[in-house]
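ok, trying the design again with the full structure, not the truncated one.
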């Protein structure tokens, strides 16, 4: 079956009901659904419906992620907080943590909240966008299961570790840079395996130091068994600046573990010494900066917009139609998808049917069944 579009109303209702069906409280399920589908709205399919069952539903059913989230503030000042998420829903933890950082920023100019013992929190850009919508600068990052090798290394020692920054502008879309510190991320390799796309050259290295190419399913298995790893931004070695991606990855790893005394590196494998599944114990950080504590939101938005417009108006390379700034392509994807719905590939179609049938949500009939 080819990709088919599922209308947004049905997608929101079904995913929310499915989260409730596995024990997530209704209000928390709304947050989880919103974060998940925001990814598909922006065209980031590797983190949307594609991960709904294997990353969230299955982990709850396996007992390694708690459907009821205990958001426990264990240390707090006027501008900072340390939170223990007790392996609850990462999206709920992320939403509440950034909301707390924003509340502190509104009062004191800046706020930072760090988290330990969390789970996968979806696209990092969601939380930075929470800030930009209210005229704030938003910064967030998270560590992840070890799948990326350091420069001159071949062993997965840290995660894809995104460093995500959102800046409010006076345009229809804010500036939002949301990307991994590796060339590609696990979710993209998973997506390639589902869709039959090959691993892109230079994005992976095997245990012998050779570039990994070919079948994404095979490559994904090598990451899982420790015989291959993803490469940092810049690729293998230092020639194209691989040490830069490595350095940024380490910034995220440290800020996701050191301030909150959390887990890092191979402790985030999701398995114990006997190979049994255990919670991932991820860490995150969230920073909010209120532009109204400087010269004001209006001035910031206008100046940021002017800078972006100047860049986009610069001379283009031969054959190039336009220059983009971060957040623009995602905005254009949403303009194209908002009336069509979310595209669902064949494997995810079958997963949604399986989840529906197992949870007794028979009121949902998907377009690929008609």
């Amino acid at each position: 079956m080819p990709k088919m579009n599922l209308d947004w109303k049905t997608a929101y209702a079904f995913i929310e009901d499915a989260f409730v069906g596995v024990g997530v409280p209704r209000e928390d399920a709304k947050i989880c659904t919103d974060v998940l589908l925001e990814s598909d709205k922006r065209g980031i399919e590797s983190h949307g419906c594609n991960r709904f069952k294997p990353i969230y539903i299955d982990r709850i059913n396996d007992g390694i992620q708690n459907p009821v989230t205990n958001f426990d503030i264990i240390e707090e000042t006027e501008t900072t907080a340390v939170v223990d998420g007790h392996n609850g829903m990462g999206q709920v933890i992320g939403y509440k943590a950034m909301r707390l950082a924003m509340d502190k920023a509104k009062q004191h100019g800046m706020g930072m909240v760090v988290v330990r013992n969390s789970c996968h929190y979806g696209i990092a850009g969601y939380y930075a966008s929470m800030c930009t919508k209210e005229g704030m600068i938003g910064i967030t990052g998270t560590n992840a299961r070890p799948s990326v090798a350091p420069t001159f290394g071949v062993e997965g020692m840290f995660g894809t570790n995104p460093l995500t920054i959102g800046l409010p502008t006076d345009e229809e879309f804010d500036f939002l840079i949301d990307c991994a510190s590796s060339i590609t991320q696990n979710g993209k390799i998973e997506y390639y395996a589902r869709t039959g796309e090959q691993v892109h050259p230079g994005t992976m290295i095997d245990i012998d130091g050779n570039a990994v190419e070919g079948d994404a399913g095979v490559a994904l298995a090598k990451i899982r068994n420790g015989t291959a790893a993803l490469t940092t931004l810049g690729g293998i070695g230092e020639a194209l600046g691989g040490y830069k991606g490595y350095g940024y990855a380490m910034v995220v790893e440290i800020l996701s573990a050191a301030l909150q005394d959390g887990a890092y590196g191979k402790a985030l494998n999701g398995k114990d010494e006997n190979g049994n599944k255990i919670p991932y114990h991820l860490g995150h950080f969230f920073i909010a900066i209120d532009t109204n504590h400087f010269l004001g939101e209006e001035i910031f938005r206008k100046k940021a917009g002017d800078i972006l417009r100047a860049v986009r108006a610069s001379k283009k390379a031969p054959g190039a139609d336009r220059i983009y700034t971060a957040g623009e392509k995602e905005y254009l994807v949403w303009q194209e998808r908002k009336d069509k719905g979310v595209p669902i590939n064949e494997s995810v179609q079958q997963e949604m049917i399986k989840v529906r049938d197992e949870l007794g949500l028979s009121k949902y009939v998907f377009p690929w069944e008609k």
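Keeping the full-length input from now on. The chain is about 40% helix and 15% strand.
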